[in-house]
Design a protein that fits this description.
With 225 residues, the chain is mostly helical. 56% of the residues lie in helices and 0% in strands. Bound molecules: iron/sulfur cluster (SF4). Iron/sulfur cluster (SF4) binds at residues 157, 160, 199-200, 205-207, 210, 212-213, 216, 218, 221, 224.
Length: 225
């Protein structure tokens, strides 16, 4: 099997059904949780994704709630001093750099689009600090576009399953684009982030209590619990 060659006949419907049931008790991935709490616009989702970069989910949620509590829309956020945005998001990794980017996105949203960002991947990808993961996640959650958000959990798990074989998250995104049914393209991130934190962990996954063990090839797993 070569890079990006999918595993034939992988039972994705059954596997995602089992994962869906398994993650019910766990908190959802942070961008989905923010959407559930009313911050579902493309603007809020993009800002949240920037805050989340290299920052733990447990820290990202309160940071975003504090930021949106102070500045609930692009106009208010753009009017804040960069130093104030920096103070509000300070526990986030690279907060100084992110503060400038967040303020610039707010300014672009307000002046270019009257506070409503268009559901256009080219526009979103041109914003400062927005890469493919944030663009896809935000456009998927906010706009319902069938785009896949591949973070480190999604990349690790679908490769362990043998569903795809890809050496980087970028290649996993390409490979999933070939095989993942459209109906799961947004949901897969919602499911696999909590699954990756609670069951299929980076080190020593909990294979003994995993509901999809029978279907999983456990590619690259050398030590498990
Ligand atoms: S069997 Fe192990 S490696 Fe496979 S999905 Fe479950 S926890 Fe992850």
């Amino acid at each position: 099997m070569t890079d990006q060659t999918p595993r034939p006949d992988f039972p994705i419907d059954a596997v995602l059904g089992s994962v869906r049931a398994a993650v019910k008790p766990f908190p959802p991935a942070v961008m989905f949780e923010l959407a559930d709490r009313g911050f579902s616009s493309l603007f809020h989702q993009l800002i949240a994704c920037i805050v989340s970069v290299r920052t733990r989910e447990e820290e990202t949620l309160p940071i975003c709630l504090r930021l949106f509590g102070t500045a609930p829309d692009a106009a208010t956020l753009a009017a804040l001093a960069e130093s104030e945005i920096d103070r509000l998001i300070r526990p986030s990794t690279f907060h100084e750099q992110k503060a400038g980017r967040i303020r610039e996105i707010a300014r672009i949203a307000m002046t270019g689009y009257g506070d409503g960002m268009p559901c256009d991947r080219n526009v979103v990808m041109a914003l400062p600090g927005v890469g493919p993961k944030c663009a896809n996640l935000a456009l998927g959650i906010a706009c319902g576009l069938p785009l896949i958000g591949v973070d480190i959990h999604v990349h690790r798990i679908v490769n362990r399953w043998g569903y795809v074989r890809a050496s980087t998250p970028e290649r996993t995104l390409e490979a999933l684009g070939e095989v993942l049914p459209e109906r799961y393209r947004v949901e897969i991130n919602r499911l696999l982030v909590p699954f990756g934190k609670q069951v299929c962990t980076g080190a020593r996954p909990w294979c003994s209590r995993c509901p999809v063990r029978a279907e999983c090839w456990r590619v690259g797993v050398t030590e498990a619990r």
